[in-house]
Amino acid sequence: MYRKVGTQQELDIFYHIKKTSWDEKGFEMEYAEPHSEQFLFYIDEKPGGTFQFTPYAYSRPFIRNKFDNIVLDGMNLVEVDSFAVLPAYRGKLGREIVSFLIHYAKEHQYTHAIGMADPYVFELFNQTYRIRTIQVQEAEWFKGAFAIPALFHLQEVYEQAEHDWYSPPEEWKAGVF
């Protein structure tokens, strides 16, 4: 199951999950920007994962400076951030969160996403999920660890033939959705 963060209690849970995961990776904590939408992901009604979307027009200046030069006509961009899964939920929620990313992009007609990707996540998107993800600049030290400025080609995924890992949220198995 997933839920859009709508209360202070949910936001506190979101930050707890994100901070736990980010501390493990060495990232400095950052907090939600205005116009962002945060989501919590659950298994058996227990929160275990997070994800955040920000329309590109509302991205922070740091992000805009990284990506403005790659924006082309016809692109509808969203910034993705806060992909975090608690250790006990790894291997259980990742696929659902990535499926939700594709579902959200299709619903909002986002063609691409941009973000500062952990090198492991960058490879995961390219190799496991086969979401074409392009490194647009050199990896750099970002909030405590190396991160890759990445462009995710989402429209290619939701307009292509089905992927074996993808299931829209309404089809998630009991306990997850």
TrEMBL record:
GO molecular function, one term: acyltransferase activity
Sorted UniProt keywords: Acyltransferase, Transferase
Enzyme Commission designation: 2.3.1.-
Group of enzyme by EC: transferase
UniProt xrefs under CDD domains: NAT_SF
InterPro entries reported for this sequence: Acyl_CoA_acyltransferase (IPR016181), GNAT_dom (IPR000182)
Gene3D superfamilies attached to this UniProt entry: 3.40.630.30
Name under which the protein is recorded: GNAT family N-acetyltransferase
Native source species: Paenibacillus shunpengii
